[in-house]
Predict the 3D structure of the following.
Amino acid sequence: MDQVLDNIYKALRFFTDKIVGYFAALIMIGGTGLALVEIVRRYILGVTFHWGQDAVTYFVVGSICLFFAVTQARRSHLAMSIVFDLLKAKKKLRAAMYLRALVSFLSLCFYAAFVWYGWPAVERAWMMGATTQSMLLVIWPFQAMLLLGFILMALAAAFQLYQDIQAIRGRKVFPWAETEEGLEI
């Protein structure tokens, strides 16, 4: 069973790190490039694309939402580690492991709730043909990027929760995957 889960998690990590991560980077580069073109057009030529600001905003935000999944999978997301550091300093590694499992569980719950309530919003935007303020760009692809980021974060959090629970039980799974900094299991 562990080997099957290990292979599934490796496939998820490959998809998240190599495909979603690079796709998000390309979207960010494209949005940044469009912003630079808009600067030149506005301040040198005196004209702009009326949809340019919307496109830049949604491309940049969409790429960030996708990259959230990469940072979650690497356990490199923004974290307040003071409690972990205090527990480690007091040699309470087991308590830190329980806390990490709790954080993984709460993260999974939040991501799953976001997906649960976000799916109908994307579907509704698609069916209604909702557009950005410039009325040119449909909004559902950008909402779908956010939703995909949260789906991938939920999957990563589920695997991390499994890893955390197994660590509490004294078993090491996914030895190649990151753990919290300084909490080797």
Remarks:
- The chain has one domain: 2-168.
- Residues 2-168 form one domain.
